[in-house]
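Appendix C: a fully annotated inverse folding record. The material below is reproduced so that readers can follow the format used throughout the book. The structure is listed first as tokens, followed by the designed sequence.
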């Protein structure tokens, strides 16, 4: 995800929600926030595999905000 950040990135808060299958594969994502950073992070999460969840389908969210 480091490739998503740039020195001038719009760091407005955003949320990415992911649906996982029984193996931890991300099968669907959606987001709240339309900045280039949010879109890039969503793409990174969509192509990831996470730990197997306790049940499927399993939904998790990634809520990112940046403060100075």
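Designed amino acids, in order:
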């Amino acid at each position: 995800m480091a490739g998503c950040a740039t020195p001038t990135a719009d760091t407005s808060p955003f949320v990415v929600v992911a649906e996982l299958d029984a193996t931890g594969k991300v099968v669907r994502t959606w987001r709240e926030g339309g900045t280039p950073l949010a879109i890039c992070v969503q793409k990174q999460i969509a192509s990831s595999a996470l730990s197997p969840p306790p049940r499927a389908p399993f939904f998790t969210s990634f809520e990112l905000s940046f403060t100075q």
